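Researcher: Next entry in the queue.
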Amino acid sequence: MGRWDMGSSTLPTLMQRTQGSVDELRTLIQQLIVAAEPLSGKFDGAGKAAFDAFKANSDQITADLGRGLNSVHTGQAGMSKSFTTGDTTMADDTRSTMSAANFDAARFRG
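Model: Structure for this entry, 110 residues:
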């Protein structure tokens, strides 16, 4: 069984990258809409309806995707807090236990 080691900066870095992805996603969707604008008069039938619906709902699509990624970000923040709290608690408990230990009794003298 392998050991999983996560450094103290892993989750904060992941959170930062997720937030950057939210911002990037919003920008990319807006760029897609602008880039597709010249095509708006070239569709007929179901293709035109789908294109028009995408354009009309682009703000909602962007918001929904952003909310989804923000939920991921919130989960990452919770995990980061839990790992930090656990690490601090473990160190405090270890120091407390060590201060109560009688290391002199463990010495072997002849």
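Model: Residues 45-100 form the longest helix (56 residues).
Researcher: Noted, moving on.
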